[in-house]
Amino acid sequence: MISDFLLALLLALIQGLTEFLPVSSSAHLLFPSLLFGAKDFGIAFDISVHAGTLAAVIYYFKKEIQGLLYAWAPWTKNRNKENFFLGLHLIVATLPIVLVGLLASELTESRSSNIHSIAWANLVFAGLLFTAFKSSSQSRSLTELTLFAALIIGCFQALAVFPGASRSGMAITGALIIGLNLKDTSRFAFLLSIPTILGALILMLAKGAYSIALSDMLIILTGFIGSAFIAFITIKSFLQFVERIGMTPFVLYRVALGIVLLLI
Hints:
- This protein is an all-alpha fold and 264 residues long.
- The chain has one domain (4-263).
- The chain is built from 13 helices and no strands.
- The protein has helices at residues 4-18, 25-28, 30-36, 43-60, 62-72, 81-103, 105-109, 115-135, 147-158, 167-177, 182-206, 217-245, 248-263.
- α11 (182-206) runs antiparallel to α12 (217-245).
- The radius of gyration is 18 Å and the shape is globular.
């Protein structure tokens, strides 16, 4: 039986790695329970690992976020139009997942999912990502993004409500479909994760998960620090290599993962 500390570290590493890659975090989080009969640490631990990934993406994009906040500040006179419209597009792209999350709260709050349904979701959405990547013109930049295009990306991200779909994978799929280049696609998907993860944290906190025993603090801190560290490395590495490696390796990996889950 794996110790609580090692299990918390393993789950934090999985969350930090898979939150931002176009792979399914829910699929990977199945393996600790399948291999070790791992227990559920509960919603307080979920909050810690989500807070860790949120801290990582905010720190990585701190300059961009400062620019967005300044462009949207009511006292700003000569606001940067590019940052203002990027912020507007992020808001529009966030609305669908907020709406779907509220309407499908039972599905989003479910802590157990059928292995085969997650496997099939991986296979189906991997195929959709591959199709979008191969057929996309990748000719548009973020400055050419429209409100309608941002809404399309948001609608695709909202499909991540299905376990196995991958939030990052669906946002990237939507961005590729509307013709955004791969570098800006990845950047927009990462920036879009900030309000999305923040919203998820607010909902989890609203459930009353703020009561944490002192004995659980090591597990909570392990979840936060582990997920933040790995998430930061993941974001940095992905943005450096995504234009070189494309989406095909992630598609092949998800297909293999889906097949493995179907065979279990």
